[in-house]
Amino acid sequence: MFGLDCSLFIDTLAMDISFMDFDHVGKLIQLTFIPLVSCCPRGCWDKWVVLLLEPLFFYCDDTFGYAWLSLIHEGRAEVPAYFGNLYGPEEKVKKLEVELLLKFTRSVSCLLGVLASEELNSGLPQLNCPKSDLKSISSSSLLGYILLHNCFWRFSMYLFGYLVDYQAAKEALPFCHALIRLAVATDDERLKQFILDEMLPTLVRFDDRSPQSGISRLRSELSSSIEMTSMD
């Protein structure tokens, strides 16, 4: 299998991602991306993982990020719908948009959890290890490798759904921890800025269950919406 033209296969697999809706990309992540990343030999990381993840995270940076921002600031998740726009009563459409967004968020978080798994990151330094650099770490750490090759267009907490959804957060937290370990080991300014400015404040709010907490209110609203929809 590995004697095939892997880059052609990956290009074919990923070329239409930007035109897909959340439901289809989410299924692609679960059924194709995660198995391929999990089983990819170290020698094929450049031909498989990098070529596969770059278009996916570009899609996330553009479409996924906008959907979460619109939900948080406008109360409406602007999601790419299957074959055009969603139709029906406004409240029902809004609930469906949220469901699609949460489902996709969970798929992305599941992939992030795989990228940070111990099996693929044996060389990921512990917090008390001596300083190193991404190039050295990348030889035995998939996460270090994809960071070295800048597969993430930019870091933002939308990748984790701002930790609003508990199921997605549970999958994503190991990835957050791995990023902290890399930031400490490498003194990478980009990572440190993201962790200090976005990740840590969001993690603090994640545990804030007070009624005044905006993230707590949104989490409660989304949970209620999902429960009501499942009863319909």
Notes on the protein architecture:
- The protein has 232 residues and is an all-alpha fold.
- It has one domain (6-231).
- Helix content is 65%, strand content 0%.
- It is built from nine helices and no strands.
- The radius of gyration is 18 Å and the shape is globular.
- It starts with 5 loop residues before the first helix and ends with a helix.
- The model is unreliable at 210-214 and 226-232 (pLDDT under 50).
Question: Can you describe this structure in just a few lines?
Answer:
InterPro entries: ARM-like, Exportin-5_C, XPO1/5. The protein is an all-alpha fold and 232 residues long. 65% of the residues lie in helices and 0% in strands.
Secondary-structure topology with pairs:
Layout: H1 6-14, H2 22-39, H3 45-74, H4 90-115, H5 134-137, H6 142-148, H7 166-186, H8 189-206, H9 214-231
Helix pairs in contact: 1-3, 2-3, 2-4, 4-7, 7-8
- Global Rg: 18 Å
- How many helices? The count is 9
Tally of strands: 0
Largest sheet: none
Number of spatially distinct domains: 1
- Beta-strand portion reads under 5%
Protein name: Exportin-5 C-terminal domain-containing protein
InterPro entries: ARM-like, Exportin-5_C, XPO1/5
GO molecular function: nuclear export signal receptor activity
Domain Exportin-5 C-terminal: 7-203
